[in-house]
Amino acid sequence: MAACVALGAAFAGPASAQQSTQPSPTLDAIRARGALVCGISTGVAGFALPDSQGNWRGLDIDLCRGLAAAIFNDPAKLRLVPLATSTRFTALGSGEIDVLIRVSTMTMLRDTTLGLRATMPYFYDGHGFMVRADAGIQRVRDLAGATICLQQGTTNEQITADYFRSINAEFRPVVFERADQAIGALAAGRCDSFGLDAGALAALRSTMANPGDWVVLPERFSKEPYGAYVRRGDDNWFDIVRWFTNAVIEAEEQGITSANAEEIRRTAANPNTRRLLGVTPELGQALKLDSAWAYNVVRTLGNYGEMYERNMGPNTPVGLARGPNNIWTNGGLLYALPMR
Fold first, then answer.
1. pTM for the complete prediction?
2. Is 2 a residue whose pLDDT tops 80?
3. Is 101 exposed, middle or buried (0-12, 13-18, 19+ CB in 10 A)?
């Protein structure tokens, strides 16, 4: 056993030292300009949408702000860049933005062929269809021959085509660049249904004149885990975005909230809690961030559950139950990787 440990240390030591000295061009650029540049959607309620004062609100916005807090201890050191679905990955690859947090499904081909990396899921969804509540449609099979609104450049185009091909039925697609254009066409009667991720459909329904006139059918046809994307080749920046996402989930698992973070940091004896909140510095050192980076996020934005409930929960217009987006101990899919 001792020989194995010694051999492991011999391999781990130089590699770890080499990794710790690698510069992060993205992090260096962010610090030099004094702000994080975060790519977001052009407007999806619950994820990213301007309020009546023009301030952006939503889960994606809170994650962007939280990432700025992790870097600068200031969530306001942030520039948001709304991006169309068709241009979001190009904007990231060209360096227009530092990170894409924009209702973007993590898929193998996106992760391996675009020069980008998907970091970690922060929202689990699945493809669904919305129809008029009085249309008499009980299941998606009833939409054979229907006109279906779809959003250009999404995985939903292919999923819809694959489904109708699988049941040997025709449908008529009407494709729009933006979700608000598609939902407008649906409301105007140009389409019989709108095919999109179910969470996004629920969010869009909340913005319609009469949300009760519409229903999201219960069937799901895909796995749509949303994750932040970064450019390939900057391992330190990938690590920061990945472990930032992990940290807000870990905070909820540990019961650390915006209201109690300061007290817990001051009194915690649990080594995992002390590491997470920066009482001991190793996590910050590993990411080249301040030791209190995760504490700064939670005390200003809250944990994942607080972000979700504030933007999408049952007491919001979106009114979406946690479901798979609950932590694993409450029956959901969110599971923080060990932060040690």
1. 0.85
2. no
3. buried
